[in-house]
Structures
1.
Amino acid sequence: MSAPSPLPNGRPRHPARVLEVETLAEIAREVERTESDPEGVGIMTRKGRIYPVRLDGISLKAAPLLKQETLSVGGDSAHARGIADHSVATTSVVILATWGQYQRLLPKLRRQPFRLTETAEEIDHALRSYVAHSPRTIRGPHREFVVGDHPRVMGVLNVTPDSFSDGGQHLEPAEALAHAERMVTEGADLLDIGGESTRPGATPVSPDAEWARIAPVLSGLAGRISVPVSVDTRHPEVAQKAVDAGADLINDVEGLRSEAMRRTVAKSGAAVIAMHMRGTPATMQTNLVYSEVRAEVFSNLAAATDRAVSDGVPAEKILIDPGLGFGKSAEQSLDLLVHVGEFRSLGYPVVIGASRKSFLGWALGSDDPAYRLEGGIAAAVVAAERGVAVVRTHDVGATVRALALVRAAQKFANAPPAAPHDLTGSEPDA
Ligand code: HH2
């Protein structure tokens, strides 16, 4: 412990420092540094930070009970004013409580009526998923890959004539293969091959034409690269052929809304990215009105992944993506980017694709895609800092180098405390 230096007049000075602590491990390390009683480190850590939790559609009967129980453990919850005079039937709720308060609140909610038992399970799942930083292995039919320990980089390989930033550059299979190898050399952890542009207003491509573009690249890559390959497709027949030809991951920009796609993915054993998009690439920019973009994308991905699991896709093979630029304005994409860590509450690794997108140009005040590299790197860093598992990018080398810093910095946030403490357990002092 460092001793405070006195002021020139001899009076002792105790400069107060607001601590930047994000994870429970970081809070515990700060508590340890005070040389406090080791018994108390866990208890104190669980008081160290408020986790605001948002719930939607809470009933008129449940909301006051939820508030009362949260107040009883020392937290609070906000809901619609109309709950008091019964002028609304349901409300959104924001609970404000520390980890320790939740540990006392959840058993109380589990004993309450009006679906608060289920609400308790939802809160518990969201909190545990949000704070989890441990690696997990995602198994495809051919290869497996690890996410969750540090941000991984997915290199984009578009074999299309019309992709918005690199259309036509890799149409020749030999050029596509060379580019794939280059990205792996630059440090890509995964590759994502696309045979249909999904830029706003793009002309749809038939599954046969899409497969004709992808097939030579997939077969050419077999045995040539060591990283798992993803195929960016909305078509179940292309997904199936891709898995048969060596792909481990299906990247579905339609968010598994087609039952045929869910069944194909389940049967094939592939891992899958469910990305949020409203409508289709042809229509997605026609309606950008959301009452709240984050809430809508979040509940949409929750429903999509629930449907996928009930159709047989193992939860351990699912990744989610809020779909920046897919039916979103520049402001909405930025809002999603800055709050992308919230999506970790669903319990699936989060993928983000900001690379070269027009919202980067909007921030810069320029429409020229040639000036989007630095913005794309900044977006990758913002997302990685917020705990996304995979960053999808056209600019692999620069992104890998930028994320090396995030990886090194995250070691500080996630380093365990000196002694083992129960940081997430129940409250013995309840
Ligand atoms: N963005 C694009 C395509 N696929 N998949 C995921 N999971 N996330 C994304 O953000 C995403 C995606 C658009 O980029 P690009 O592939 O370069 O363009 P195009 O669709 O024009 O080929």
2.
Amino acid sequence: MRGRLVGWLMCSCLAVGAGCQSSRGTVPRALSNQPTLSGLSEGQTIEVRHGAVVSVSPDASAVGRDVLVRGGNAVDAAVASAFALAVTWPEAGNIGGGGFMVVYAGKGAVPVVVDYRETAPAAAKADTFAAGRPTQHRLVGVPGTVRGLALAHEKFGKLPWKELVMPAVRLAKEGFELNKDVAEAINEYVAKPGDEANEMRRVLGKSGGGKWASGDRLVQAELAETLGRIAEEGPKAFYEGAIADAIVESLDEGLITRADLAGYRAKVREPIHGTFRGFDVYGPPPPSSGGICVVEMLNVLEYLNLRENERLSAKTLHLMIETMRRVFVDRAKFLGDADFMKIPAELTSKEYAAQIASQINPLRATASEDLATDIRLVKEGTQTTHFSVIDADGMAVSNTYTLEQRFGGRVMVRGKGFLLNNEMGDFNLQPGITDRQGKIGTAANQVAPGKRMLSSMTPVIVTKDGRVVMICGSPGGRTIINTVLCVVINRLEYHMSPRESVDAPRINMTWFPDKVTAEADMLKDHSATLEQLRNMGHYVDPKPARQGDAQSIFVESDGRIIGVADKRRGGGAAGY
Ligand code: DON
């Protein structure tokens, strides 16, 4: 029954008080009065009644699920899963990066966002990178993850901090079984040339050379030690003392100082709030562009009545592409860290969306050049990771965090077993210089000391009358916003099932480059549609590109929780 695992099946072994073997571990005896845990398999759907965690890593989802079963709430589970992902999904799960967590506390509370985006070190100025080609060591932003998770825990958590970090310590110390995706990713990235990756090669490379294979066990003793310190001493252990010293000392000609680390603070912010067809949509505010962009797009699409046409018709895809194109112009012009500049409030208003909608030609593509002639966008990496959590009281967490590129810049802190981000690359690094290869030099997102670089991460929570209906997000750089848009439209506009909403082929347009990328291989029955799009004036990339990895949770009106692990990169949904 691949793809559909239904919870609440009583396991006979519970009745005799023995541990109950799920496909991923053993339910402790103490839980023998609990409902059976659903098993795990790749790309699965689970249907449960109490709570669920869906992430790219089955082990990390199981860690969060176990926290829920022990009486932890959604934030407790999110903290535990985030630390676990730093062990089991090393290309993007992290303690050396940053991200955004949207928390809905349940019972009609206004959601909040924990912003733990990295900051520019004090020594970084607008022209610091103007000469171009900075080393990976200089691209490291001050990491936010540990303080972000601690802030979320301080504000909402129920279980002790140490209990939430320890599962990750155990996974690092005892090791975990590599699946094909993780094994291949490590093999590929340790093999790439470059001295900056020497420490990563020592730590993550297979001892004695050779390649990791699916089923091998990866033990990370130094990471276990680092996480153990964080478990015992809290976030200070990371931002001050030996770990902070090691970060600074690992960066040759790096910009980060001990003062930058000690001074880093995560922030609680109000989410961006929009409505779509009577649903409330909450996403992260600047320094992420995700919340504003997805709400702006939904507002425009609400005027365009997509449902008059089929979801994968050329007409619908055209209207979505033209909406994406225009919203990405606003992103480049106006968005950056709102603590450093003013962002026009009208971007998320219905009136402004009506104007945009009225400018879209329903039959012809607009050339991106015609919307603004002087700006091009920076190139971003393609690895980040998102997970979704809901608990039995309706508290929900939507969390996306990243090292920016896959394994960041492959810079590992010496002797401490964790990777650093290369997030400074998300700033507009060369002021005033724009070119057709992908640079952007506009002011909104230029470097300043302490400033947060603009992000596309878009963890969202959708509610209806105060009840969570959907939790979603994705990796994928700028494509994240469009991936989330596709899943939300599938569900809220086309009423697709949870599985179909995540599975359906996705499209992407980010203004520049002026081309549409699509999961065209999944659209094989729709070659006529692609041809129609081309006839409307769109350049549709002939190369199919897999887009995003939306590890999502949906809640049906009768309370059933549907966890949907996206099949694109494998993943695990765990619930009870
Ligand atoms: O914050 C951002 O938008 C980027 N640093 C995210 C990079 C990313 O998603 C790469 N991922 N798949």
